[in-house]
Amino acid sequence: MTNTTHKLTRRVFLKQTATAALFTSFGFLAHPPAVQTQKKSKIRRILTEPGPMIPPVPAILLTVNGHSEGQDEISVVWTFVVNGNPPQIGVSVHEEHVALQMIKKHGQFVLNLPTVEIVEAFDIVDMNSSKIMDKYTLSGLTRGKASKVDAPTVEESPIHVECIVFNTIEVPPVRTVFLAEVKATAVHEGVCDENGRLLVSSVPFFGMTVGSGEFYTMGDLVGHIGKSVGRDDIKY
Question: Number of structural domains, the chain?
Fold first, then answer.
């Protein structure tokens, strides 16, 4: 793999290697070894209750200015990546979340990555996301201030993703999706290397397993984006 290839963006690289992928699919290039998985029954059943069973999903604490001074809000919301470059994210907020009207009012917020040390505080916030009260006092988390946007932070979080809303989508019956541009990503020392690449083993973050309602930390490293084509430079 040449240095030129490593400088390409993920999308451009995929376009330029589409032909190679096609040949591979027909067996003209060597196939990678098959992934070893635990054998499960081939019998499939339809669950009584349908659900978005796509684990894991990010465990995120969203912080936003309140309606008045000193009433800042923390909420747990569904979060997803929209784009890497430009950096864009999305959050889905329920109509019962106190944060909903605050995000609409201010148009900016911070996504705070929780770690195992504050998993109980995370759950306290989550179980009270529809109630009007000071979540900082309730959970024992520390209020901070974002660097680039006008919003509070959770100081215990090693990663702050500071965002400004650029689009709002009403999703019936009870959700509003906010699409936002990431204006700054601020991290504790030791969380990333000198190139801004996340050092996963240094951050004991956890995800939510949709379908079981449990929290899990990262398991074994099993690969990375671009592994099959000899790349190791892709972050997003």
Answer: 1
Peptide bond into 172 cis (omega under 30): no
d(CA 225, CA 153): 30
Question: Which runs of consecutive H residues, i.e. helices, occur in 111-168?
Answer: 119-126, 135-139
Question: Residue 122 is part of which domain span?
Answer: 59-216
Concatenate the DSSP letters of all residues of 50-89 into one string. Answer: -------EE--EEEE--SSTT--EEEE-EEEEEETTTTEE
Determine the distance from the C-alpha atom of residue 148 to the mean position of all C-alpha atoms in its chain, rounded to a whole number.
Answer: 19
Q: How far is 44 from 192, CA to CA, in rounded Å?
A: 42
Give the CATH number, domain containing residue 98. 2.30.110.10
User: Is 161:110 a contact under the CB 8 Å cutoff?
Assistant: yes
177-234 pLDDT, tens digit each: 999 999 999 999 999 999 999 999 999 999 999 999 999 999 888 899 999 999 999 9
Q: Give this prediction's pTM.
A: 0.84
DSSP 96: T
Cα separation, 86 vs 181, whole angstroms: 8
Assess if residue 236 is contained within a domain.
no
Q: What number of residues does the chain have?
A: 236
The reply to whether 63 falls in a domain is yes
